């Protein structure tokens, strides 16, 4: 009989049930358990990612089974007590027990279809990165990782995030809304050079793992197509298939944005934009003078306008329209009290071409230490101040 700590077992099974998907392929609905003396390796896959975690057990025998992910999690969760007892009754049933409760659940041991191919892949060790550092990048840029439901835009660079390491510099890029908005950051790192694109939902899922105190070892397969990237901690392995797509030359886009520089208080501007979103308008007018910021919005029945103390209506340098919801998310991602905003009308055509957008009336860049958030296209204003 195998004995497993219930809380540890439930935690791993909960993660596996997130990975496992309803699918015509039965294999993707299963959790795989590889029992060994003293530990069990628990894994789940949706064919594009694979999660594996190892937990300790008492006793144990050499056996591998596949069990429905959600049923196994629910059964184990409902067992009273601190331990779960497993006993294989025959070649199809496993008995789960604890306290006075007993569940019998059917399992499979045919592994031919299990997509465990990463064991046969040739992974290169690229070094390690601290999970907290990676999570900070993901959290701060998460606003750019939302993919609209029903969008017709399915190009890979809109559905993925770019991780690029070149000469010990990690750059991260994510495009939102068909490439109109860009989240970008760069960090010094000890990682070796690699370039991969990972699905946005996978990146967000990785950022939610509770690995705060861990260093993640990074491995990348040494081939040009169908690449995989694997993150490994002490007891956990997470493997992602990468996407094959062309990503805009975002570094060149960033380098091309200079122009006029304005400095604003983050909380003040965030307040203005937040109040503008209350009108549920898809656009807001923004005016900027040397030392001030003005925003106005309207719908069929209501109007809103507000300005900072330094705004000079007779000395307007910038007058454009923007999506207020995206602008609010960008400013929310800024951590410092004051931030720089760059606005550039020059050399915008080339940036618009690289970002594949039809507008060329201006580019805003919001700079917060190592993070740079780019907003384009900026649409021309649609009413007078």
Topology:
Layout: E1 2-5, H1 6-19, E2 30-36, E3 39-45, E4 49-56, E5 63-68, H2 69-78, E6 83-88, E7 93-98, E8 101-106, E9 123-130, H3 131-140, H4 156-159, E10 160-166, E11 169-176, E12 181-188, E13 194-199, H5 200-207, E14 215-221, E15 228-232, E16 236-241, H6 250-255, E17 260-265, H7 266-277, E18 284-289, E19 293-298, E20 303-307, E21 316-322, H8 324-332, E22 338-344, H9 348-354, E23 363-368, E24 371-375, E25 379-380
Antiparallel strand pairs: 1-6, 2-3, 2-5, 3-4, 4-16, 6-7, 7-8, 9-14, 10-11, 10-13, 11-12, 12-24, 14-15, 15-16, 17-22, 18-19, 18-21, 19-20, 21-25, 22-23, 23-24
Please identify, by name, the CATH architecture of the largest domain.
Answer: Roll
Describe the largest sheet: 8 strands, antiparallel
Number of domains: 3
Instruction: Give the CATH superfamily of the largest domain.
Output: DNA Polymerase III, subunit A, domain 2
Estimated structural class: alpha+beta
Amino- and carboxy-terminal Cα gap? 77 Å
DSSP helix count? 9
The percent range for strand residues is 35-45%
In CATH terms, what is the fold-level topology of the largest domain?
DNA Polymerase III, Chain A, domain 2
Multimeric state of these chains? single chain
- The residue ranges in which pLDDT falls below 50 over 5 or more consecutive positions are none
How many strands in all? 25
Indicate the radius of gyration in whole angstroms.
25 Å
CATH class of the largest domain: Alpha Beta
Q: For the residues shown, what is the average pLDDT?
A: 85
Spatial order of strands in the largest sheet:
5-2-3-4-16-15-14-9
Shape: elongated
Helix content: 10-25%
């Amino acid at each position: 009989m195998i004995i497993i700590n219930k809380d540890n077992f439930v935690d791993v099974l909960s993660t596996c049930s997130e990975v496992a998907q309803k699918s015509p392929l039965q294999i993707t609905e299963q959790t795989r358990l590889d029992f060994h003396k003293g530990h069990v390796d628990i894994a789940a896959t949706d064919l594009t990612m694979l999660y594996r975690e190892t937990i300790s057990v008492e006793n144990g025998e050499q056996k591998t089974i596949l069990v429905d992910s959600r049923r196994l999690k629910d059964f184990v969760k409902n067992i009273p007590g601190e331990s779960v007892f497993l006993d294989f009754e025959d070649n199809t049933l496993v008995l789960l027990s604890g306290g006075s409760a007993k569940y019998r659940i059917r399992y499979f041991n045919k592994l031919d279809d299990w997509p465990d191919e990463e064991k046969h892949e040739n992974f290169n060790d690229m070094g390690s990165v601290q999970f907290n550092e990676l999570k900070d990048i993901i959290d701060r840029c998460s606003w750019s990782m939302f993919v609209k439901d029903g969008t017709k835009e399915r190009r890979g660079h809109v559905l993925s995030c770019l991780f690029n390491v070149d000469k010990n510099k990690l750059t991260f890029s994510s495009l939102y809304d068909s490439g109109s908005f860009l989240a970008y950051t760069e960090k010094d790192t000890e990682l070796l050079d690699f370039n991969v694109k990972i699905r946005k939902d996978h990146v967000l899922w990785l950022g939610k793992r509770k690995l705060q105190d861990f260093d993640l070892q990074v491995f990348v397969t040494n081939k040009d197509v169908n690449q995989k990237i694997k993150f490994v901690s002490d007891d956990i392995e997470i493997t992602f298939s990468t996407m094959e797509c062309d990503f805009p030359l975002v570094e060149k886009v960033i380098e091309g944005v200079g122009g006029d520089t304005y400095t604003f208080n983050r909380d003040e501007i965030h307040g203005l934009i937040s109040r503008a979103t209350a009108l549920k308008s898809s656009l807001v007018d923004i005016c900027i003078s040397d030392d001030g910021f003005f925003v106005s919005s309207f719908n069929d029945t209501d109007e809103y306008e507000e300005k900072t103390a330094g705004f000079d209506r007779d000395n307007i340098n910038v007058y454009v329209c923007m999506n207020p919801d995206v602008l609010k998310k960008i400013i929310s991602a800024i951590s410092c009290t004051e931030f720089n905003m760059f606005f550039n009308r020059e050399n915008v055509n080339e940036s618009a071409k690289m970002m594949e957008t039809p507008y060329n009336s201006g580019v805003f860049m919001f700079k917060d230490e190592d993070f740079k958030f780019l907003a384009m296209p900026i649409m021309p204003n649609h009413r007078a101040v």
